[in-house]
UniProtKB/TrEMBL annotation:
SUPFAM superfamilies: UDP-Glycosyltransferase/glycogen phosphorylase (SSF53756). Gene3D superfamilies: Glycogen Phosphorylase B. It comes from the Bacteria. Residues 12-175 form the Glycosyltransferase subfamily 4-like N-terminal domain. One of its GO terms (molecular function) is glycosyltransferase activity. This is Glycosyltransferase subfamily 4-like N-terminal domain-containing protein. Pfam families: Glyco_trans_1_4, Glyco_transf_4.
């Protein structure tokens, strides 16, 4: 079965990472994959090629589709002759539906929606327009895949076809993300952190939705009660060269207590080195970094947004968003419990039972097979 994936771009992001993991783990004897990026090859382009995936990029500029790019898309679709087309992200979904017109025959279309709709004011205007436009053509898809229940509910509320809904959460590589004493020792040695220091982390790019301010306020509260605690933060623009981050560190008097590592590629090692992982977001869909921490056997404190509480379940703590006092108190509770190790073990087991990459990949494979059977 030849499956064509059409995605907005291939920069570093959750959707792009999930597609990459899916391409790596799907049964290649049964499925052949082709990928079209509407913009450029981005961060993942070379990785896709190394994985043996046929990749094409159209070079579209954000919000500015060109006649040349659309014509090339038409040519590619006709030459690829896919059995099934799957869109990713708002623009990729619309392009997937448009592609069926180019083929001149009924090829099933799947959409993949990876975002919640809490704060669309932070989205580009062109993206907001595409999301709204998507309600009508959503009714002609075979299925709409959402990675979170909250995302499905929010899209259905603006007119997306409810009867097309399929929930397939993110999947996690439990071999890459696993408990590691070596990673713990390495990070502490590198950052010169004493072994007995309690380490709390936040892995998230700088963005208003991630609410780093909430994290820093909670950190300031905790340091007043506990001397023996430090904080590690990693993600794009999470460094002192970011004036907002620098001001937060200064305001909360956290110099010497926080380690700002910026964009990193060793996330599995960083995560496994933590005592507690955190998601302080005030909007979220299905948080990858929380699932990765759970796979590493690290208990999590998360804000009650998106599917975070469902993901963590009884293995961690859930607090209201934008409540630094509650966040600090949850940290304190986990720091003081002898059950923390058992919570981490339960967290890893929950991921292995419900959210392993193998399990999620099989759900995609089954959906592809079921969709094709419906038209044959």
């Amino acid at each position: 079965m030849r499956v064509l994936h059409i995605i907005t771009n291939l920069t570093m992001g959750g959707a792009e990472m999930m597609l990459y993991k899916l391409l790596q783990t799907t049964n290649r004897d049964r499925f052949e994959f082709v990928v079209i990026s509407l913009s450029g090859e981005g961060t993942f382009g070379e990785l896709f090629k190394k994985a043996g995936v046929s990749l094409h990029s159209l070079g579209m500029k954000a919000g500015k589709p060109s006649v040349k790019a659309v014509w090339r898309l038409r040519h590619l679709i006709r030459s690829i002759k896919p059995d099934l087309i799957q869109g990713w992200l708002p623009h990729g979904n619309i392009a997937a539906s448009l592609s069926r017109v180019f083929l001149g025959k009924q090829v099933p279309i799947l959409w993949n929606i990876r975002h919640a709709l809490y704060n669309v004011q932070h989205y580009k205007k062109s993206t907001v327009k595409i999301i709204k436009i998507g309600a009508m053509p959503s009714k002609r898809t075979a299925k709409i895949i959402y990675n979170s229940r909250i995302s499905a509910q929010q899209h259905q509320a603006i007119g997306y076809a409810a009867n097309k809904t399929v929930i397939i959460p993110n999947g996690f590589d439990t071999q890459q993300f696993q408990p590691s004493q070596a990673a713990r020792e390495k990070l502490r040695n590198t950052l010169q952190i004493p072994e007995n220091t309690f380490l709390i982390g936040l892995i998230a790019r700088y963005h208003p939705d991630k609410d780093h301010a909430n994290f820093f306020k909670a950190a300031a509260r905790l340091t007043k009660a506990h001397e023996n605690v430090q904080f590690v933060l990693a993600g794009r623009d999470v460094e002192l060269s970011n004036p907002v981050i620098a001001e937060l560190v200064q305001q909360q008097k956290l110099a010497g207590r926080v380690h700002l590592l910026g964009d990193r590629r060793d996330i599995s090692d960083l995560t496994a080195a933590l005592d507690i992982a955190t998601s302080s977001s005030y909007t979220e869909s299905f948080p990858n970094t929380v699932g990765e921490a759970m796979a590493c056997g690290v208990p999590c404190v998360v804000t009650d947004v998106g599917d975070s509480a469902w993901l963590v379940s009884e293995t961690g703590k859930v607090v209201p968003p934008r409540d630094s006092e509650a966040l600090a108190q949850a940290w304190m509770t986990l720091m003081g419990t002898e059950q923390r190790k058992h919570l981490g073990e339960a967290a890893r087991q929950r991921v292995m039972d419900n959210f392993s990459l193998t399990t999620i990949t099989r759900q995609y494979e089954q959906l592809y097979e079921q969709t094709i059977r419906l038209i044959t």
